[in-house]
C-alpha cells in the first residue's frame, strides 16, 4: 500500500508535469495574469504540453532503441542527460512559439528559467546524481516566492501546500530508494534557490 502511494505521488508530481501546474496557478490563481485572454492561455497550455511534456516522453523509446538508456526509470545519472537535452531543445522551440503571441511574457520568462535550470542540472548530473523530482518541485516553490514578492499575488496558501507536497514527495522518493537524503535535500534547495535567484 505504501509503495503504491509513493509511486502515485511520484507520477502526479513528476518533473514533466510541473510546468503545466505552474501555468494553471498563473492563469487561475489570485494574480494579475488571470486576466490574460482565454485564447492566449489556451495557446500557452498547448505549447507547453507539446514541447515540455509530449515530446520528451515520445523521445524515450528512441533513446531506448539506440541503447542510450536501459529503461524508462533513468536510474543511472548518465542516462538522464539525453532526455534533459531533448527537453532543453524543445523548451527553446516553445519559447519561440510563445513569442509569436501577445500576453505571454510571463510564460516566456518561465521557459528561459527552465532552459537555464535544465542546463545546469545536466552539468551536475554528469558527475553526481541529484533528485530531478525535488529539483522540479523546489523550482516551483522558488517561482511562487518570486510571484508573491514581485507581483500583486497572494501565494501564501499555495506555497504552503507546495512545501507540504514537497515533503510528501521527498518521503516517497526515499521510501522507493530512488535517492539518498542528501540528493533529496540538495535537489530541492537547488531548484528553489536557482529559480528564485534568476527571477528575483
List the helices and strands and how they pair.
Elements lengths: L1 H11 L5 H11 L9 H28 L15 H18 L6 H21 L6 H19 L5 H20 L5 H19 L1
Helix pairs in contact: 1-7, 2-3, 3-4, 4-5, 5-8, 6-7, 6-8, 7-8
Keywords:
mainly alpha; 0% strand; globular
Compact summary:
The protein is mostly helical and 200 residues long. It has helices at residues 2-12, 18-28, 38-65, 81-98, 105-125, 132-150, 156-175, 181-199. Helix 5 (105-125) runs antiparallel to helix 8.
Q: What this model shows, in words?
A:
It is a single chain. The chain has helices spanning 2-12, 18-28, 38-65, 81-98, 105-125, 132-150, 156-175, 181-199. The mean pLDDT is 89. The chain has one domain. Helices cover 74% and strands 0% of the residues. The radius of gyration is 17 Å and the shape is globular. It has 200 residues and is an all-alpha fold. α7 (156-175) runs antiparallel to α8. The chain has eight helices and no strands.
* Strand segment tally: 0
Task: List the total number of helices.
Answer: 8
Total individual domains: 1
- H/E element string? HHHHHHHH
Computed CA radius of gyration, to the nearest angstrom: 17 Å
**Structural class computed from helices and strand pairing:** mainly alpha
Low-confidence stretches: none
**Residue share in helices?**
over 70%
Mean pLDDT: 89
End-to-end Cα distance, whole Å, is: 41 Å
Q: What portion of the residues fall into strands of 2 or more residues?
A: under 5%
**Main beta-sheet annotation:** none
Instruction: Tell me the overall shape.
Output: globular
Amino acid at each position: 500500500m505504501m509503495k503504491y502511494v509513493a509511486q502515485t505521488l511520484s507520477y502526479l508530481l513528476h518533473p514533466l508535469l510541473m510546468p503545466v501546474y505552474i501555468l494553471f496557478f498563473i492563469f487561475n490563481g489570485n494574480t494579475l495574469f488571470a486576466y490574460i485572454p482565454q485564447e492566449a492561455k489556451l495557446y500557452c497550455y498547448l505549447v507547453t504540453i507539446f514541447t515540455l511534456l509530449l515530446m520528451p516522453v515520445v523521445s524515450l523509446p528512441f533513446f531506448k532503441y539506440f541503447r542510450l538508456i536501459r529503461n524508462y526509470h533513468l536510474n543511472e545519472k548518465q542516462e538522464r542527460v539525453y532526455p534533459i537535452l531533448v527537453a532543453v531543445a524543445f523548451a527553446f522551440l516553445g519559447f519561440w512559439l510563445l513569442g509569436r503571441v501577445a500576453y505571454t511574457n510571463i510564460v516566456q520568462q518561465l521557459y528561459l528559467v527552465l532552459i537555464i535550470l535544465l542546463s545546469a542540472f545536466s552539468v551536475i548530473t554528469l558527475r553526481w546524481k541529484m533528485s530531478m523530482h525535488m529539483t522540479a518541485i523546489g523550482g516551483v516553490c522558488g517561482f511562487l516566492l518570486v510571484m508573491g514578492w514581485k507581483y500583486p499575488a497572494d501565494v501564501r496558501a499555495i506555497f504552503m501546500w507546495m512545501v507540504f507536497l514537497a515533503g510528501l514527495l521527498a518521503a516517497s522518493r526515499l521510501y522507493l530508494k530512488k535517492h539518498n537524503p542528501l540528493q533529496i535535500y540538495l535537489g530541492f534547495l537547488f531548484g528553489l534557490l536557482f529559480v528564485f535567484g534568476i527571477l528575483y
